[in-house]
């Protein structure tokens, strides 16, 4: 899982420098009433980090674990990310992802084929959830940083 951890670390370190150049005002703009602002996109990625930490740890602990689905629009609205300061949101996002990269490095190889269910979907292997995490993160970062080449590489774990 060292490679997955490295891929996540490289992605967030490159992205944070570009994200910090965006003003708080620009980060608050909703392109349409039903579309997320940059703050809300990063807020969603914070929620994703929270959910994935649970997925990683619980799946290592218990093969076949069931995790409730994540209601992303509700979570983003309830937490009012648009009401927070941009750099505070970025710091939380970055720190959580540094922690996830640390967790990725410590996942026992014997747990990679453990399975989990998310709501009524699955099973998914822990290996898939780990590799999909960074790809999901990059998918959303592309909506903020569309012309950034490092977001176009795809990581596929081979073990």
Question: How is this fold's topology laid out?
Answer:
Elements: H1 2-19, H2 24-28, H3 38-61, E1 65-67, H4 72-79, H5 86-106, E2 115-118, E3 121-125, H6 126-144
Parallel strand pairs: 1-2
Antiparallel strand pairs: 2-3
Helix pairs in contact: 1-5, 1-6, 3-4, 3-5, 3-6
List keywords for this structure.
159 residues, three-stranded mixed β-sheet, mainly alpha, globular, single chain, Four Helix Bundle (Hemerythrin (Met), subunit A), 3 strands
Describe this structure in words.
The chain is mostly helical. The chain has a single domain (2-21, 36-151), classed as Four Helix Bundle (Hemerythrin (Met), subunit A), CATH 1.20.120. Helices cover 60% and strands 8% of the residues. A 3-stranded mixed sheet has the order 1-2-3. A hairpin with a 2-residue loop joins strand 2 (115-118) and strand 3. The model has no long low-confidence stretch (mean pLDDT 94).
């Amino acid at each position: 899982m060292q490679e997955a951890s490295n891929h996540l670390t490289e992605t967030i370190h490159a992205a944070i420098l570009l994200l910090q150049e965006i003003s708080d005002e620009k980060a608050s703009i909703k392109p349409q009433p039903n579309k997320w602002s940059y703050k809300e996109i990063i807020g969603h990625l914070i929620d994703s980090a929270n959910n994935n930490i649970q997925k990683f740890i619980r799946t290592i602990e218990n093969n076949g674990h069931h995790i409730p689905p994540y209601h992303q629009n509700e979570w983003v609205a309830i937490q009012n990310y648009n009401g927070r300061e941009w750099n505070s949101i970025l710091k939380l996002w970055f720190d959580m992802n540094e922690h996830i990269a640390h967790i990725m490095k410590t996942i026992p190889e014997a747990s990679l084929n453990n399975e989990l269910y998310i709501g009524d979907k699955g099973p998914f292997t822990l290996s898939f959830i780990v590799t999909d995490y960074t790809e999901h993160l990059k998918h959303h970062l592309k909506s903020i940083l569309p012309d950034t080449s490092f977001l176009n590489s795809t990581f596929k774990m081979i073990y």
